[in-house]
Design a protein that fits this description.
This protein is α/β, with parallel strands linked by helices and about 260 residues long. It has helices at about 15-30, 40-55, 70-80, 105-135, 155-175, 195, 200-205, 210-225, 235-240, 245-260; strands spanning about 10, 30-35, 60, 85-90, 135-140, 180-185, 230. The chain contains 10 helices and 7 strands.
Length: about 260
């Protein structure tokens, strides 16, 4: 993947999982990287390894996107380094599992902040310069959960529906300016996501794709000018076949699958 060779990519949530896979594939293609996530020590390890292996430039900026001011601080950092971000990957995000009324209110709001607000803020910060120079790319991590309401992860699926619709609309809006936008919709993926979201029981039951495969699918679709892509044939069929079924029935079926008392 050398589409972005000798250009700069900014990756959020780059310390593990799909974010790290993005970094590794882009580095192998000669892309310089700005890596950001909460775990600065982990980012430094990844940066050092990629810079040495692929002879690229790597900058690290630790930030927690649950903090409203974090996107601006990231933007200011890249400006201070005179870095022209050609590829913005809004990858950071997290989920949760359980009855909505019993969830921690602050965690629910932090999920909206990271999965939605930070995506909007970072996109708004970097997009004007892309439009001005008539080129640039933005990849937004959505999910197969974007396509329907999912009881017991309702907040998460709603945030990912936002990401998908935001990306699709923006893609058409900025196409005349030479800017590409794509939403990547993976299903269950080998990463820390399920552990953080307290969904380990589902990971054990599902066939998972590798983070590397998901990242490659997203980058390839973005380079091809697609506004969204679903990673995996099974995930693609599942997301589109449900359109043939009444939405209420789909939600009822999914509720039966996710109900906590069935996971014991």
């Amino acid at each position: 993947m050398d589409v972005w060779r000798d250009k700069w990519a900014l990756i959020t949530g780059a310390s593990a999982g799909i974010g790290q896979a993005f970094a590794e594939e882009l580095a192998a293609g000669g892309t310089h990287l700005v890596l950001t996530a909460r775990r600065g020590d982990r980012l430094q390890q990844i940066a050092k390894a990629l810079a040495a292996q692929h002879q690229i430039k790597v900058e690290v900026f630790a930030a927690d996107l649950a903090e409203p001011g974090a996107p601006q601080r990231i933007f200011d950092f890249t400006k201070s380094k005179s870095i022209e971000v050609e590829l913005l990957i809004n990858n950071a995000g997290f989920g949760g599992y359980g009855e909505f009324a019993k969830e921690d209110p602050q965690r629910l709001l932090d999920m909206v902040q990271v999965n939605c607000s930070a995506v909007v803020c970072l996109t708004r910060l970097y997009l004007p310069e892309m439009i001005a120079r008539k080129h640039g790319d933005i990849l937004i991590l959505a999910s197969t959960a974007s396509f329907q309401g999912v009881p017991y992860i309702s907040n998460y699926s709603a945030t990912k529906a936002f990401d998908l619709i935001f990306a699709e609309g923006l893609a058409e809006e900025v196409k005349p300016h030479g800017v590409r936008v794509c939403a990547l919709c993976p299903g269950s993926t080998e990463s820390e996501f399920h552990e953080v979201a307290n969904q380990q029981q589902f990971a054990a039951k599902q066939k998972q794709e590798t983070a590397e495969k998901v990242a490659h699918t997203g980058l390839r679709a973005l380079a091809a000018g697609k506004s969204y892509v679903i990673s995996g044939l099974g995930n693609y069929l599942g997301a589109h076949m449900q359109r043939l079924v009444p939405r209420r029935l789909v939600t009822k079926i999914v509720a039966g699958m996710f109900r906590p008392d069935r996971q014991k």
